[in-house]
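ZP: hey, is the pyridoxal-5'-phosphate complex queued? I don't see it on the tracker
AM: it wasn't, my bad. submitting now with these inputs:
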Amino acid sequence: MTTTKIPLEVDELPKRWYNILPDLPLPLPPPKDPEDGASRLQNLPNIFSMEILKQEAATDRYIPIPEEVRELYIQSGRPRPLYRAKRLEKILGTPAKLYYKSEFYSPTGSHKVNTAIPQAYYAKKQGIERMVTETGAGQWGTALAYACSLIGLDLTVYWVRAASTWKKSRRHFMQLLGATVFDSPSNNTSIGKQLLLDDPQHVGSLGIAIAEAVQDAQADQKAIYSLGSVLNHVLLHQTIIGLECQKQFKKIDQYPDVVISCLGGGSNFGGIAIPFLRDRIIDKRNIKFIATQSAAAPNLTGEYRYDYGDYAEQTPLLKMCTLGHKTSFTPIKADGLRYHGAAPIISALRHQGFIDTIIYPQDESYVFNKAKLFVRSEGFLPAPESAYSIAAAIDEAMKCKKTGEKKTILFNVSGHGFMDMDGYEEKLLRSLKASS
Ligand SMILES: Cc1ncc(COP(=O)(O)O)c(C=O)c1O
């Protein structure tokens, strides 16, 4: 029998995160200030904790994970198993080997806990009392609420209204963990108030919610802002995913030919891919990387240029693949994939030809149907965002069926969909009813 579950023992949990900055083929273009107006760069210490700012520009290849953070990683269920999708392979009739990482075992439902814990830990160490953040799908807000609750910090969350209106249970979960949650745009900030004056039904966007959270945090000396994707330190913390996968593949004497994950701001894709990107850049291993996106916000196909991270232009300019910080995007069920820009590290590597992208149609029925196949064969209910990774893994496996290639495909199931059933119902309603 070939085992389908490849676990790691608690004492095999990595002790260091991997920082790809010193190994990038070209230096990463640094954040910069716009030509006019106040310096955003000088304002950063008012927004972020000191340790996070240090990590953002760190040049060390490996950064030790503090023991207290490792303990909380273990508390949150790490290390997480790698699975061989044998049942799915059989249904597809593919010669490819499919492996997936189980970030859906997270206590709040996604990989976002991996950076929420260290961010809350460093804030507490610095004497901060409250964290402020935005959330799109609601997964990041819940993850930070979890970390703040365990570590002992207050939390305020600005939640993009397009998602908050249909995810009632997620709001209750965040509140249960002690967070204060505002729909964004909100009447709690001048930015939100102005947008609501122009359009009282405004559905919001991540760019707007970031702007509100930054404004709120700046006005309170005991508060800091925290971001759940895009920035270098977030991707650094998320490398725990790929580092665990590398140990797991070593145990079974395998290695992936293809690494796949969905991409909103880039944290779960970066988390699983970056340790393998190192192997491609440094060891010249032949690995293909695919980031999957929605046609609603295919930011990796955008221009590679300097742009703001938020709608209100309060952040420094970051060099990234962007669709423009003022753009409004149609809401989708995978709302975590609806952001105008991709992480600078991922954008640079995309620009240099290391990363391919697949864009799935905005109506999402294609990816939800692939998620249905996954839940019926493997038995795990994925988050809508993770359905994009699953769809691409299945598509790659079907290409192998045509060519006869026995590729090893690794994909990340970044979260579970227990609180997204309304999305499943809306997207699969007809076929679910028909088959029941
Ligand atoms: C389950 C899940 N996967 C993926 C994403 C996309 O974000 P990122 O690109 O930062 O991984 C989100 C964002 O909310 C999410 O909730």
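AM: back. Residues 110, 136-137, 139-140, 229, 262-269, 336-337, 383, 385-386, 414-415 surround pyridoxal-5'-phosphate (CB under 6 Å).
ZP: great, adding it to the tracker
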